Amino acid sequence: MLKSYLKIAWRNLRKQKVFAAVNIIGMSTALCAALLLSLTAYREWTYDNFHENGKNIYQLISEEHTGSQLRTGSSMAKPLAVAIQKEVPGVKHTSFIAGNNTPVRYGANHYYLSTQLVDRDFLDMFTFPLIKGNKKEALSQLNQVVLTQQAATSLFKDAEPVGKTVELNLSGQWQPYIVSAVAADVPDNSGIEFQLLTRLENDPDFNTTRNDWGAANFPLFVELEPGVTPAAFEKNLNIIVKKYYKGKIEDLQKNGGAGAHGKDVFYISALGLKDFHLTEGSTFYSGLNSFYPWLMIILSGLIIAIAAINFINLSIARSFGRSGEIGLRKSLGAQDNQLMIQFWAEAFLLCCFALIVSLALTAFLMPYYNQAFGHRLALSVFRNVWVVSGVVIGFFIITLLAGGYPAWKVARLNILQVLKGKLGLGKSSGVRNGLIVVQFIVAVVLISCTCIIWQQLNFIQSAPLGYNTSQVISIPLDNATPSDISTMKQRLGEMAEVRSVSGSMLNLGLGNDGSSGNWTRGFTYKDRHVATKCVAVDYNYAQTLDLKIVAGRDFSREYGTDSNAIVINELMAKQLGEKDPVGLYFKMGDAFPVHVIGVVKDFHFESLHNKMEPLVMVINAPLNYIFVKVESPNAVASLKKITTLWKSINSLAESDPSFLDENAQRLYRQEQRFSKIFMSGAVLAVIISGMGLFAIAVLVMAHRKKEIGIRKVLGASVSGIVLLLSKDFLRLVVVAIVIATPAAWYFMRRWLQGFEYHTSIHWWVFALAGLIAVGIAFLTVSLQSVKAALANPVDSLNRD
Q1: Which residues pair with 473 in a beta bridge?
Q2: What is the rounded distance in angstroms from the CA atom of residue 791 to the CA atom of residue 796?
Q3: Of 206-215, 567-576, 642-651, 780-789, minimum mean pLDDT range
Q4: Residue 427 has pLDDT above 50, yes or no
Q5: Would you tell me how many other CB atoms lie within 10 Å of the CB of residue 614?
Q6: How far apart are CA 568 and CA 581, in angstroms?
Q7: Residue 474: what pLDDT?
Q8: Which residues in 370-417 belong to E strands, given as ranges?
Q9: Is the Cα dihedral 403, 369, 662, 484 positive or negative?
């Protein structure tokens, strides 16, 4: 029986090639977009789901209530791990994870491998299976390394890697390490990535900070014993937090700090591994907005809904040409359920063709999609039985929804009306009008959101940051020796286009090395807790960045006492409560007393997501970046020249220098991704909505053909008829605009609240979105309206 229905459906579709082509194109495009977006969401949600002990693994996150704000941090002090293992019950394993790119040398060749410095428990906690070697012994010695299979192949080709000696440059000099094991390549949905593992004790600064409770550098993970709840662990953990951070807690309380939700002013919580990837700011490696995958699902659902609406409208419109067939079938005794199955079979065939085309499109477009939106999807995802099951189930649901309604509608028609050619489908205009409104609500929301996101990106790009971004080049000092840095500064000073050279421990923005961070210090000043961001800088820092000095002076080699001097910003001066802070002496915790020599105007040293904070600049710490101010008619040529010079001096330099304005833009990659997604969604929504409106226009014009003929005989003008036929549709679009505007305003207002500095939402954005929607609707409907108005009225009136 089903086979017979499908054969008849195939013959009918072959007769209606245009109808079939339009439906297949619309539905396959929507399915392709929905597949790509849904697979993206699936991949984000399944990050780190391969760890066997994942449900018992947690990352520690600190919460510091200063009184005026809440600070969260993912870096922990090294002695905390020892204290947890000794004093907190229910803890099975702990491990720090410190990542960087490390030069690795074997023979005459050297490579850069993504390296994680970890504790011995790492391989027992996380499921990174070993292909060669013993898990218990792989990291038992400090001079051992574990390579992934890909890294081992790059280094040793087909030779046996275990037991081989490689050299690592972790502290400016090459040191030998023994390959103790080879791990399987890290899955692409892992929040922890590496090509090489070695012990944390190999970190050059390990011994200086191993007992320092004030030095928090790396994220710490714990694995709890089965049955231990995170709440019980947090309760016991924060008992020792009060013990070892007693001074810090007292300082926070003096400053008016108060814990929220029953927590203390300084509290350490446990973030589950399942939330590791989708918690902003949780780690050095992940921290994606948790709404991002939901955005993918919402957009895919909206696009499919619009395509399904079009499918329904086209199917109903096509039914007018099949009144004879429907009437004949009914008169010969066809039951409603048989007609419904017949029409659904046609819809099913169309959807099958659309699915096949969409799968081909998905495979073809996936590389371009990954490149455009920064994703890493691969066709191998279809090997997952859950993904395939989801696609099949989703396909049948879409088919039932898109094909089921028109099939049900046609099957219930009165036989006498059908035989007279009066299908009566136009009487139930409520559903039709609702479908139009839904389509244009989606279109207007997406158009409005795209405009506001674009405005915010422009605001970010043009906002004054308080320092020179267009003329300053940042050079990452990865793997550089002090001699390399000294030589580079000397050679830069000899270049005609270089106006000033300085340096810093921290970059501004996000450089080509992908590194960013901050350094926070808290101390007591006049019985008040003071918290500030700190940065170690080189001489000429203010001059190179064009920072405005509002009081005092910058660091100078002419003053030998500047090694204990600091330069602060205006917010720090305000926090200290001193009218004239220049010359002020005080202690920042247990360090030597410092004295303020200058005050600079506040500047945005962090993302515009964050408000400007107090800042202290010191000059007695190692540098990780060189800043170079250049004046040249060809900035790109200057950048290339400096890059070439740097790589000739430091042969191990991996990351290229970049201008600070490029660094600033990299901070907003997620917003740029949102913009592309919304823009693509808006274009698809408008195109598919236009197709649906065209289908409904065909349906309505067919119903009103005689009315139009009578109006023309009575003297109605073409323009009057076009306006008459269009105004009903335009009313629906206006209703959609009225509903969509507050929805778009609400969503974008919530989104903008994630920025401390953002643009305003202007009324004209919604007016523009509405005009675009009205314009598209009018053009689409008027094409059919003009055609109907120009038709010969004799032909219309002769129609039975």
Answers
A1: 628, 659
A2: 8
A3: 780-789
A4: no
A5: 21
A6: 9
A7: 92
A8: none
A9: positive
Residue 640 is which amino acid?
K
Give the pLDDT confidence of 212-243 residue by residue, as tens digits: 887 787 899 999 999 999 999 999 999 999 88
Q: What are the structure tokens assigned to 526, written together? A: 């006049």
Residue 339's Cβ-count burial label (10 Å; 0-12, 13-18, 19+) is buried
pLDDT in tens, 23-50: 778 888 888 988 888 888 888 888 888 8
Distance of CA 698 to the CA centre of its chain: 41
Radius of gyration of the chain (CA): 33
Lowest mean pLDDT among 400-414, 711-725, 764-778: 400-414
The pLDDT, as a whole number, for residue 340 is 67
Which secondary structure element, helix H or strand E, spans residue 705, and what is its range?
helix 705-713
The band of 425, judged by pLDDT with boundaries at 50, 70 and 90, is very low
CB 789 within 8 A of CB 718: yes
- Residue 433 falls in which region: left (phi positive, over 0), alpha (psi -120 to 50) or beta: alpha
- The CA distance from 716 to 702, in Å, is 18
The secondary structure of the chain in percent helix, strand, coil, rounded to multiples of 5, reads: 50, 20, 30
From residue 214, alpha-carbon distances to 209, 245, 525 in Å are: 9, 9, 17
What pTM, to 2 d.p., does this model score?
A: 0.75
Beta bridge partners of residue 625, listed in sequence order: 476, 504
Q: In this structure, are residues 667 and 607 in contact, taking their beta carbons and an 8 Å threshold?
A: yes
Region of residue 90 (phi > 0: left; psi between -120 and 50: alpha; otherwise: beta): left
Angstrom distance (rounded) from CA 186 to CA 147: 11
* Listed residue (727, 546, 714, 515) closest to 625, CA to CA: 515
**Tokens linked to 669:** 């990659």
Give the residues across from 658 on adjacent strands. 474
C-beta atoms surrounding 274 within 10 Å:
17
Tokens coding 247? 């001074």
Give the whole-angstrom CA distance, residue 508 versus residue 517. 9
pLDDT digits (tens, 9 = 90+) for 104-141: 988 878 888 989 999 999 999 999 999 998 888 899 99
